[in-house]
């Protein structure tokens, strides 16, 4: 800047009205990212919400999960082979 006419102790700008003091630089040494003024950095970890599944049918829980995750619903086949004779198959 000296090559452009600036002299030590003068301010910057057309009429030398700019700041005379150098700009202070604050180096970040942590890895927490930038935080705006008035904003407080949070060290809290968010825990997932655990739903109470007591009393719900397992298929209902599975269907809710599929809807939430936007997965296609599973194909269920109920097979009953508790007694003699051919097993019965029911499709839902």
TrEMBL record:
Domain of life: Eukaryota
Gene3D superfamilies for the chain: 3.30.160.20
Region (Disordered): 1-21, 73-92
Annotated G-patch domain residues: 1-39
Pfam family, one: G-patch
Biased composition regions of type Basic and acidic residues, renumbered to the chain: 1-11
Signal peptide: none
InterPro entries in alphabetical order: G_patch_dom (IPR000467), SON (IPR032922)
Protein name: G-patch domain-containing protein
Species, as recorded: Staurois parvus
Higher taxonomy: Eukaryota, Metazoa, Chordata, Craniata, Vertebrata
